[in-house]
Amino acid sequence: MPQTPRAERPSPNILSSSAAPELTFYPAYTFKASATWFSWVKLPARDIHLVLQPHKKYADIAISSVAPERWGYGGGGSRDDAPLLLFYLNHPIQFVQVVGVVVVLEDYFEKFWLFTVDDGSGATIDVTCRKPEKEAEAGKGKSTSQAANRPTEEQCLHETLSALQIGTVVQAKGTISTFRSTRQLTLLRLSIVPDTTHEMALMSARTSFIKSTLSKPWVLSLDDQRRLSREARDDREQGHRHAARKRERQAKLQERERRHARLIQEQYEAEEKQRAKAADATRRAGHALREHTVKH
């Protein structure tokens, strides 16, 4: 059940369009130098809905660090499965986190968890996560006791989700996707906030990050741009060399397999000739034996 922002006024956290300077959107190979690219960016739900924006220049860039089977609801509905690449001013963002209270908890869905978080920003956001397949859970139950004593990150996430209740304060981390044209959080990490002091500390950190980083356009020096361009070029060349070596290995493997196939075929044909010769000799011997028996 998608939730919509309750306020449509411009966000106070960024410059108004009339006062904002012309933003520079740097090439995708520079994103790794951004303070937001590999971070769980602390954002209020309202900004996720209203402030973050896509950019057509990067429409073909996919967020490949998240397994596709964990995207969205996993079937049905008119929604965009893939995580969204969005921008706060010109800061590239792929991972976000929200802190708030669970106000809706839908526990009757068979294939996924769905709950709604209200962080007091004037909007709520739906959070969704796939439930484990029953067959997979049965397989996990047969694991060794040593593995059972070390639960995986996914198992910890599922245990936390199973313990959720309305009124629980959570810190939810994930990627942004859409369901029926409304943004939602596809969950990757979840922790329960233990007390108000911890919650206030998280809120303060969010406000500080917005003020110190997000509210200012990302500026990348020419030297850094040149360095990142060289690194990207080197990475491409290394990738080309790796691909060429892989093709060469595959070609050698295929040639070896063809050679082995020829040898096997030749050996089979030689054995067939031997078997045919032996069968012919046996037939001649049998015919001679019958003639000898008839004469005597």
From TrEMBL:
<dbReference type="InterPro" id="IPR012340">
    <property type="entry name" value="NA-bd_OB-fold"/>
</dbReference>
<dbReference type="Pfam" id="PF10451">
    <property type="entry name" value="Stn1"/>
</dbReference>
<feature type="compositionally biased region" description="Basic and acidic residues">
    <location>
        <begin position="270"/>
        <end position="296"/>
    </location>
</feature>
<dbReference type="InterPro" id="IPR040260">
    <property type="entry name" value="RFA2-like"/>
</dbReference>
<dbReference type="GO" id="GO:0000781">
    <property type="term" value="C:chromosome, telomeric region"/>
</dbReference>
<feature type="compositionally biased region" description="Basic and acidic residues">
    <location>
        <begin position="228"/>
        <end position="240"/>
    </location>
</feature>
<keyword id="KW-0539">Nucleus</keyword>
<dbReference type="GO" id="GO:0005634">
    <property type="term" value="C:nucleus"/>
</dbReference>
<feature type="region of interest" description="Disordered">
    <location>
        <begin position="132"/>
        <end position="154"/>
    </location>
</feature>
<keyword id="KW-0158">Chromosome</keyword>
<keyword id="KW-0238">DNA-binding</keyword>
<keyword id="KW-0779">Telomere</keyword>
<feature type="domain" description="CST complex subunit Stn1 N-terminal">
    <location>
        <begin position="85"/>
        <end position="133"/>
    </location>
</feature>
<feature type="region of interest" description="Disordered">
    <location>
        <begin position="228"/>
        <end position="296"/>
    </location>
</feature>
<dbReference type="InterPro" id="IPR018856">
    <property type="entry name" value="Stn1_N"/>
</dbReference>
<protein>
    <recommendedName>
        <fullName>CST complex subunit STN1</fullName>
    </recommendedName>
</protein>
<dbReference type="GO" id="GO:0003677">
    <property type="term" value="F:DNA binding"/>
</dbReference>
